[in-house]
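BUG-217 | component: ligand-complex export | severity: low

The export step for S-adenosylmethionine jobs runs without errors, but we want the raw record kept on the ticket for reference. Input record follows.
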Amino acid sequence: MLSIVCTPIGNLKDITLRAIETLQSVDMIACEDTRHTKILLDQYNIKTPTTSFFQHNRFTKADVLLKLMQEGKNVALVSDAGTPGILDPGYNLINLAITHAIPIVFIPGPTAFVHALVVSGKPAHQFYFQGFLPPRSQARRNRLEALKKLECTVIFYESCHRIVSTLEDLQVVCPDKEVVCARELTKKFEEVVRGTPAMLLAHFAQNRPRGEFVLLF
Ligand code: SAM
């Protein structure tokens, strides 16, 4: 069996009893970064062996994990944070397991974009999740031009390195939109800032942008 286990997006207490039980009882935990996941496992005294399953070994390692499951072993899949399969290589293993009729079970938990959507106060009955925008400015602006036409809340992930450039692009593409920037959710410096792109740029000129971000408009 493959158990897809959601883990915290920051606060290590945001884990379910089922997640802990599953991580304790499986034969192997496939992690994006074993060192990162070890912090969580140590917190809950979980001694299960781990193996790395990340972007660059996702095809070869998925085959190894599939073989283990076909031999009757139980594997848990976790990502560095949040829900496996949401913008991480988890998708490849989940898809492979389904193709080979391996039973899968999902242990629900946090996802950064759902948290951000709810606390944003924006309409949550219809939304579009973009994931990451293209890294190059022109492609990003083109994508934002298309996204601003959608009649629903638009959500995307952003890193601290690109947040200012993305806000500058938003200022060009949709200067009047109210943008919500949800940063470091569930962590010590959690912050939700609302305003036009210009207001958010002014905020981050005063406060260096650090950590992980979800943007919504
Ligand atoms: N699997 C994760 C999930 O369920 O949300 C997403 C993984 S994706 C590779 C990482 C991105 O998620 C970060 O760059 C950031 O945009 C967003 N993210 C993850 N944790 C976050 C947090 N605590 N606060 C804000 N954004 C977060």
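Assignee comment: Attached the raw record above. Residues 112-216 form a domain with the Methyltransferase, Cobalt-precorrin-4 Transmethylase; Domain 2 fold (CATH 3.30.950.10).
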